[in-house]
Specification:
- A seven-stranded mixed beta sheet has the order 4-10-9-8-7-5-6, with helices on both faces. A four-stranded mixed beta sheet has the order 1-2-3-13.
- The chain is of the alpha/beta class and about 425 residues long.
- The protein is globular.
- The protein is built from 15 helices and 14 strands.
- Bound molecules: 4'-deoxy-4'-aminopyridoxal-5'-phosphate.
Length: about 425
């Protein structure tokens, strides 16, 4: 038995499914999850001493690579002064100012401790601000696990085939409308019928929880126009895309300005952090300036702020996104070529440092329906072949992939050589 198998067996006695977040259990790909002992740069090392080139990056935060020296040092320095104060601290002000500078639509910012908290709070704020109850989300988009957002959600929920989770009362779910991603015509008709009741649209501007699906031209602009026409709040959930597809997020790439933005992952540099922010007059509705309640014992935690500030300062340096995008392009073009060489139908998507690999002969995958028609069996086999080769891909066909600045030319070459052998094995068996 490997050490991972021993730990997984032990874990299942006291942790449901042996994991603290479902997709980690490898349920959709089968096999035993690997337990990680340490991580450095582009690599993670399991408890059996095996090294993997990592394309998950802790599900997004590790844009600079694991265990980045500046982030680590910032956390160590902050820890010297105490771990939590439950009172305001200077780093929170620095963080709010920096976020506002990097993402100008976020005129005011509130820090929280996870992406789920950020989206949940943003939804409450949009409802409180508009005095409306109904919200609209898209099929296959995941926005964390708050009740009203676990309706036809993607990510782990999609993977496990429980899109409407038990425990979410019908009375909550009925306020959540779902529409097809990238289908503006459908949205127009939903708004024509119910627009005056819709508090907000929440969208992943590049969907990353049904693999990676960019918006079609005009889609995000269309959302903006509809929200303006009906007085609804437009929320861009940039928990994944923020600081990943560009320094200013997807809103910078596509030139569409939301009213509220949610952030997570990279903004914490690996610590548990989320944020939401937006237009000043909307944000002032939050307590204590306004009546919409929102709070957190550990919000704005000094260690988390130190890690996040170090991360954001490092990624603000010139050339970062050019390098990240070039590495990602090199990887996905190489994967596509390797698949082509062995006659395996594959389609790839990329926006900045975010990518998707679909086992499909469709040229353009634009929505949930198409994403779920991919060859999941082929993906599972490819995943395990790559894992055996020492390449750690997301253990689900419905997750976007992430590269880091720490991935070297050699890492990419090694990954592509492994992919070539894996596609070959797929083709010949
Ligand atoms: N929104 C999006 C777009 C996400 O991808 C995620 C997590 N993958 C969340 C929200 C929830 O964030 P967290 O897991 O930090 O609660």
């Amino acid at each position: 038995m490997t050490q991972s198998e021993v730990l997984f067996e032990r874990a299942q006695h006291t942790i449901p499914g042996g994991v603290n977040s479902p997709v980690r259990a490898f349920k959709s790909v089968g096999g035993t999850p690997i337990f990680i002992e340490r991580a450095d740069g582009p690599y993670i090392f399991d408890v059996d001493g095996k090294r993997y080139i990592d394309y998950i990056g802790s599900w997004g935060p590790m844009l600079l690579g694991h265990n980045h020296p500046e982030i680590r040092q910032a956390v160590i320095n902050a820890a010297e002064h105490g771990l939590s104060f439950g009172a305001p601290c200077p780093a929170e002000v620095d963080m709010a100012e920096l976020v506002s500078k990097l993402v100008p639509s976020m005129e005011m910012v509130r820090m929280v401790s996870s992406g789920t908290e950020a989206t949940m709070s943003a939804i409450r704020l949009a409802r409180g601000y508009t005095g409306r109850n109904t919200i609209l989300k898209f099929e296959g988009c995941y926005h964390g696990h708050a009740d009203s957002l676990l309706v036809k959600a993607g990510s782990g929920a999609l993977t496990l085939g429980v899109p409407n989770s038990p425990g979410v009362p019908d009375d909550f779910a009925k306020y959540t409308l779902t529409a097809e991603f990238n289908n503006l015509a459908q949205l127009e008709s939903i708004f024509a019928e119910k627009g005056d009741d819709i508090a907000c649209i929440i969208v992943e501007p590049v969907a990353g929880n049904m693999n990676c699906i960019p918006p079609v031209p005009g889609f995000l602009q269309g959302l903006r126009e509809l929200c303006d026409r009906y007085g609804s709040v437009l929320i861009f959930d940039e928990v994944m895309t923020g600081f990943r597809v560009a320094l200013g997020g997807a809103q910078q790439v596509y030139g569409v300005t939301p009213d509220i933005t949610t952030l997570g992952k990279i903004i914490g540099g690996g610590m548990p952090v989320g944020a939401f922010g937006g237009k000043r007059d909307i944000m002032l509705h939050i307590a204590p300036t306004g009546p919409v309640y929102q709070a957190g014992t550990l919000s704005g935690n000094p260690l988390a702020m130190a890690a996040g500030l170090a991360a954001l300062n490092a990624i603000s340096q010139p050339g970062v996104y050019e390098a990240l995008t070039a590495k990602t392009t090199q990887l996905i073009e190489g994967l596509q070529q390797a698949a082509n060489r062995h006659g395996i139908p594959v389609t790839t998507n990329q926006v900045g440092g975010m990518f998707g690999l679909f086992f499909s002969s469709e040229q353009h995958i634009t929505n949930y329906q198409q994403a779920t028609q991919c060859d999941i069996e082929a993906f599972k086999r490819f995943f395990h072949l790559m894992l055996a080769e020492g390449v750690y891909l997301a253990p689900s066909a419905y997750e976007a992939g992430f590269i880091s600045l720490a991935h070297t030319e050699q890492d990419l070459a090694d990954t592509l050589a492994a992919a070539d052998r894996s596609f070959k094995a797929l083709a010949t068996s």
